[in-house]
Sequence to fold (280 residues):
Amino acid sequence: MTTNLQSTTTLHNGVNMPWFGLGVFKVEEGQELVNAVKTAIQHGYRSIDTAAIYGNEQGVGQGIREGLGVAGISREDVFVTSKVWNADLGYEETRKAFETSLSKLGLDYLDLYLIHWPKAGKYKEAWRALESLYAEGRVKAIGVSNFQIHHLEDLMQDAKVKPMVNQVEYHPMLTQKELQAYCTEQGIQLEAWSPLMQGQLLDNPVLQEIADAHGKSIAQVILRWDLQHGVVTIPKSTKEQRIVENATLFDFELTAGEMQKIDSLNQNHRVGPDPDNFDF
Fold:
């Protein structure tokens, strides 16, 4: 049960992953980034999600170190995720990319390492690299991002280790019910990126009505909807007020009727690329 900011879900390999965290997509290197990560940890966040392509792993690492000091906690208390980019998919290339990410972050292990996109003909060798890093204890859990059902089925034909997480675009306009059901059946934890649809849902009248009923913001309602659907979520923000507000989700609960109303907003609408047609 998700009762507070430190609540975790147990991945199929026994690793505990926080239900809620901070994403840093498109946050540039610099003091704003460092402060955002530090502030999140200071206010109780225990999960930070970045990626090689974001170009900000160094600042994230600095923010984590500063945050640990302010919060008085240890490295083991923070769950850190990064991802390998398409250009580095391949056994040796992926292992090298992992070392680069680790060096930039200033860490000696990752909690979760993901294949960022299912680039055709490339992700199986990359997965073999992730399996080797996992076997060596360099990373506590491995997974994928933006994989559809057919990608997962293809990957698992040859995989020795089943992905623990699938991080995908997920919000009220893109609920991906079939994918979530498949991941649940396979014991793969679904995680939402762009849970607020890059701000495009923040004036939705249906969501506003539900938010008003609870004395909450639309963002809080959406993030609570994620959690009640059993989806890990990592909203992005650099502002302290928003970082705190986004995490104030544990003093209310959406009714079954409200959950259904939000589900009904689905239009299979993406703000990011279609995984089947993204070959960057």
User: Anything to note?
Assistant: The two ends are 38 Å apart (CA to CA).
